[in-house]
Amino acid sequence: MVFLRKTVLLGLMVTLPYSVGFCAENGESLKEEIKVLKEKLEVLEEKLEKHEKRQASYEEKIGKIKKVGDLIKGIDLSFGSTFVIQGSDVENKTTSENATDGTYSLDLGFEKKFDDYGMAFVHLEAGGGSGLDNDEINLFSGVNRDAGDSENRVEVTEAFYEHYLMDKKIALTFGKLDPTVYVDQNNFANDETTQFLSFSFRNNDAIEFPDNGGGFHVMVSPLEWLEIEGQMVNADSGWEDFFENSFWSGQINLKPNLFKRKTNLRLFGWLNDTDHTKLLDTLKTKEENYGTGLSFDQELSDSLGIFARYSYQNPGVSEFNHAYSIGFQLIGDFWNRKDDYLGLAFGQIFVSDDFKKLGNPDNEETHVEFYYNLFLNKHVRITPDIQVITSPRGVSGDTIGVYGLRVQLDF
Fold first, then answer.
1. Residues near 96 by Cβ (< 8 Å), separated by ≥ 6?
2. Does 83 lie in the same domain as 111?
3. Which of 161, 186, 342, 368 could share a disulfide with 372, CB 3.0–4.6 Å?
4. Is the pLDDT of residue 96 over 90?
5. Is the pTM of this model over 0.90?
6. Measured at the alpha carbon of residue 76, what is the angle toward residues 75 and 82, in degrees to the nearest 5?
7. Domain that holds residue 229
8. Longest CA–CA separation in the chain, Å
9. pLDDT value at position 49?
10. Is 188 strand, coil or helix?
11. What is the DSSP string of 205-233?
């Protein structure tokens, strides 16, 4: 712009004497025209300067947008929604009619993989309805593991980064974690949205898992058939006094692949060091809960898999001190429904001796569950579910039937 201005002025200086020589009488007019021209050039310079500033601002914004685009590029988005309605032959406390309750949950997941060295994950969840548990039905366990009434508020239930070392033989994870993801896993009984709906068959009842919280997880796999895991999760979910009130677990997973089929035998121990009150001495309020157990799953064929679980916990602070479950999952190849599958499980919860000494009923709470997962299309599955519970909270002779329907939407 400066060069243009100088060029124009130079031209005027060269031609001006000749113009004056030939047209002296028009000198004043030429001076006026030069003045106007200079003013126009100054206005043009100002406009061009503003344009250059705007262009630089646009380029800066475009650069930022490109950086955001590079960041979100490759993010895998998952969306799921689970709707459950359950009825029971237990009478509703307020209406004296058989109880029927419904729940729903929404799950939104964002996953970003960073080449082969890491992965970030965020899980948002919302829900409504608390279901039959602790309202119409009072059990050691529960009949709807998916129920989690957040009053329709969206909550961040998981948010973590996982880093891989030595060709993924070591994985380091930190952030807000779900402790059930890293201990007591099972291929055939570990997902309340597609498999068994009750608490007893989602995880072992005799493990005192905390709510999701801040923590870390380490997994080492030195051999193809061996995984060693450890985790710590803050048990009060408040992120205060991070290493106090914590849940610790360690697990060894053996994968011998029996019968040339997938096998998992997980042996674990855990500690929940939040304050517990000793059942037979209520002045002792700083007790810990701890336990050990196993989770086993085995493929027997392309269509059939079996599982078993067992866990024991401190009887001095627990109403029940050990529990087990067994069951199977069968894919519908045999009746030409290759995308359908069903499951059947049986489990029992045993009252602790200290809880019995306080005068409580001492029978085993027994759970049986059957479900049939019906494939409607790639986005919708419908699952009728039947549960029968005998001796709820150890009360002999009582039997509860729960009949439900689950609809799962995935996109």
1. none
2. yes
3. 342
4. no
5. no
6. 140
7. 74-410
8. 127
9. 81
10. coil
11. TTS-PPPSEEEEEEEEEEETTEEEEEEEE
